[in-house]
């Protein structure tokens, strides 16, 4: 996405009528590839979350047997994924900004 915005800014800053090495369709192609990558990433994350829950079904049964309510079991599942999302956000956002500023 950052590369696309940089290319678009360079194309916009170029004087009218001057020849360019970058075809005008390149930003649209990169945006399309970004969208495809986002769909693949979201589907992979959903698959991992569903497989994690499926593998822990027996654990959830044991938790229910010792007296946890369905809300408590649901909270335990959601809280694990929330903590993972929070930690990954805290790592990836500064890293992404740092990489952007280096370009």
Could you explain how this protein is built, in words?
The chain has 103 residues and is an all-alpha fold. It is built from 4 helices and no strands. The protein has helices at residues 2-13, 26-55, 57-65, 70-102. Helix 1 (2-13) packs antiparallel against helix 2 (26-55). The longest helix has 33 residues, at 70-102.
List the helices and strands and how they pair.
Elements: H1 2-13, H2 26-55, H3 57-65, H4 70-102
The 3D shape can be described as elongated
Element-by-element helix/strand order? HHHH
Round the Cα radius of gyration to an integer and report it: 22 Å
Beta content = under 5%
Helix content: over 70%
Counting DSSP H or I runs of 4 or more residues, the number of helices is: 4
Structural class: mainly alpha
Unreliable stretches? none
Overall residue-averaged pLDDT value: 83
**Biggest beta sheet attributes:** none
Concise overview:
The chain has helices spanning 2-13, 26-55, 57-65, 70-102. It is mainly α and 103 residues long. Helix 1 packs antiparallel against helix 2.
Tag the structure with descriptive keywords.
single chain; 103 residues; mainly alpha; 82% helix
């Amino acid at each position: 996405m950052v590369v696309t915005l940089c290319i678009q800014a360079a194309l916009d800053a170029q004087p009218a009528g001057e020849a360019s090495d970058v075809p005008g369709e390149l930003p649209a192609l990169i945006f399309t590839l970004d969208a495809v990558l986002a769909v693949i990433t979201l589907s992979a994350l959903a698959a991992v979350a569903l497989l994690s829950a499926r593998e822990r079904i027996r654990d959830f049964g044991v938790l229910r047997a010792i007296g946890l309510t369905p809300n408590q079991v649901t909270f335990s599942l959601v809280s694990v994924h929330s903590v993972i999302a929070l930690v990954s956000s805290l790592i990836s956002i500064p890293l992404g900004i740092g990489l952007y500023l280096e370009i």
